[in-house]
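User:
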Amino acid sequence: MTTTAAHPLFAEALHALGLDQLHTRVRRFPDATRTAAEAAAAIGCELSQICKSLIFAADGVPVLVLLDGASRVDVELVRGELGAAKVTRAAADVVRETTGYAIGGVPPFGHRTRTRVLADRNLLAHDVVWAAAGNPHAVFPMAPLDLVEHAAATVVDVRERTA
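Assistant: Predicted structure:
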C-alpha cells in the first residue's frame, strides 16, 4: 500500500476504487483545513472550489450532502429530495460512526457504511474541486463529475438561495 497523507480508511478506499494515482495528489497542511475557508486559504483556491461533505439525518437515517464551500445547505430542499418528514444535522458521534471520520475531515466517498449521497449541482461549475482526504489536515483535487461518480451521488439543487 502506498504511504499517503490521507486517512488509512480513505487510502484503502482509493485503492479499492482503482484511484491509487490520487495518493500523490493528496496535499497535507500543517494547519487544519477543517473548514471550507481554512481549506481554500491553504490551497489558494476559491471558496466555492471546496467540496464540503456534510452528514445529515433524514428521519434518523444518515445521508451525505456534498456542497461547494461558499454555500449552505437548505434542509427543506434536502427534506423534499428525500421525501423525509424531518432533516437535521447529524451529531458528531453519528458522523464518525457512519463515515469512519471526524467532522472536518469527512471525504466524499470511502466511508465505513454506505449512505445515500446528494451532490449539489453548483459543484459542477468548476473544473476541479478540493475535498477532505479523511483528516482535517489533508485534501485532494478531483473533477466534480468524477467525484460525483465515485460517491455514487445524485445531483440535486439543495443549496440555500441568496436573496
